[in-house]
Amino acid sequence: MLRRPLLAAALAAAALPRSGHAQPADFPSHAVSMVVAFPPGGQGDVVARPVAAGLERLWKQPVPVVNRAGASGEIGYASIARAAGDGYALLMGLSSLAVIPEAARLFGRQPAYEIDQFAPVALFTADPTFLAVPAAAPWRTLEEFIADARARPGAISYSSSGNYGALHLPMAMLTTAAKLDLLHVPFQGGGPALTALLSGQVQAMTSGPGPITPHLKSGALRVLASWGAKRIPGFEQVPTLQERGFDGIEYYIWAGVFAPATTPAPLREALRRAMAAASRDPEVQRALAAGGNALDYRDGAAFEAFFREDTARLVKAVQRIGRIE
């Protein structure tokens, strides 16, 4: 009589998956890569590095930040979409993650990845973009910038992280709404785009607060407007585009951690708990604040809902703007 339950238990145990994926208690046993789909110096990079350092302290394993740039972020994003769902390859994704597949379809091209190939794990920052110009530029207000752009079509250039990227789409939204003709100069990421602005190669760019904050403090740059729904702490003097009559023009450059969608639920939960712990790490909080990034932590269902809603809004914006050659 005793042998039957023992036999049933043995058969049940044999039927359990042998993959280490289902055993998050053993995770991680070696280095975990965090991919940023852009060169160093941009928003994804300045958020990924303190978060990775916090995870290293928590996991006692290396968490190298891997800058895999190219094609407006498409190359780095696609690398995680195709990665094994074992937790050892993560993505610090930006808002452009949701845009690139839709932009590919506009041009009749097969997207390199689809949104459902990613599992949202945790959001760390979600800041509105700002219109930044050199402090020596003649424009001190948004109205002056727009008036000059209308008077000199194609004369004012701006840099971005690539077509339909996180720094291009907000400017495209503005130029479409304001009927402006600006010269778009795309780079491989926010870091090179910012370097171009600081060196005088271009006259404007959009950016999250993190990368430009040191240059605002040094007096090298000024900001003329934000894409937020309301003014934000630390930038109370900066008007929003909506205040200036551009209703519905709203854009946030957010940074969040994603895993491949094939990652098993128990491992996703282990990753979520680790990200929550990293968000509470005082060193992570200090590093983000020093870089001008306000921690806006969300995970689980809250981040998934945010990602779905923002994706829907950005896809509509891309469709409204249409093809940009």
UniProtKB/TrEMBL annotation:
Q: Carries keyword Transmembrane?
A: no
UniProt keyword terms in alphabetical order = Signal
Q: Which SUPFAM superfamilies match?
A: Periplasmic binding protein-like II
Task: Look up the signal peptide feature and give its range.
Answer: 1-22
Query: Does the keyword field hold Signal?
Result: yes
Q: Which CDD domains does this one have?
A: PBP2_Bug_TTT
Q: Which InterPro entries match?
A: BUG, Bug_dom1
Q: Which family does this protein fall into?
A: Belongs to the UPF0065 (bug) family.
For this entry, the protein name equals Tripartite tricarboxylate transporter substrate binding protein
Q: Provide the species name.
A: Dankookia rubra
> What is the taxonomic lineage of the source species?
Bacteria, Pseudomonadati, Pseudomonadota, Alphaproteobacteria, Acetobacterales
